[in-house]
Amino acid sequence: xxxxxxxxxxxxxxxxxxxxxxxxxxxxxxxxxxxxxxxxxxxxxxxxxxxxxxxxxxxxxxxxxxxxxxxxxxxxxxxxxxxxxxxxxxxxxxxxxxxxxxxxxxxxxxxxxxxxxxxxxxxxxxxxxxxxxxxxxxxxxxxxxxxxxxxxxxxxxxxxxxxxxxxxxxxxxxxxxxxxxxxxxxxxxxxxxxxxxxxxxxxxxxxxxxxxxxxxxxxxxxxxxxxxxxxxx
Length: 233
What we know:
Elements: E1 8-12, H1 16-28, E2 32-36, H2 39-48, E3 53-57, H3 65-74, E4 81-85, H4 90-98, E5 103-106, H5 111-123, E6 133-136, E7 139-142, E8 147-150, E9 153-155, H6 159-170, H7 178-186, H8 196-209, E10 221-224, E11 228-231
Parallel strand pairs: 1-2, 1-3, 3-4, 4-5
Antiparallel strand pairs: 6-7, 7-8, 8-9, 10-11
Helix pairs in contact: 2-3, 6-7, 6-8
């Protein structure tokens, strides 16, 4: 086991006691922590500097957590977000995940679980290889520039679509199941009973296929009925 990575974390929580508790615990583990008491400050900080992870309360004053999250994703900021909420319904968790959250923790929570989830989120984007370019058929992905091209034509993707395509391309020629995508792209370890995967695959497929219809090569993402999805190697 190597040493745990030192993380730069933004904690956006309006309850002063909870924020102090989380900040103190993270600092004791050696992490660098910045706090925000409302959504406006959180958005200002998150767009102004780079963080390894963001702990984001859903019910923030001034600007609520969902609006902060959607604003970050719309701006192309892909920093992993762990959303905190007092809302325990599956529907509420799904709403947060579909808005771009990477993981969800329901209050009251154990600090050890929060740190475990943060460490998992911080590990995920690093990748296990030194590859900077992935290729699958006519699709090329530059991991450093975060650019995707098909037959030389640039395709603009949202952060989640990019992560989804990256997972398929790292497994080119192999079936990637819905469960694998939920875990690897959303860090979601139970079935949310929603079509979140299917919806994102559909959007990704549409963007990849735009302008490549008849005679242009057609679909590069294949649905393997009852199994999952595959992109040609």
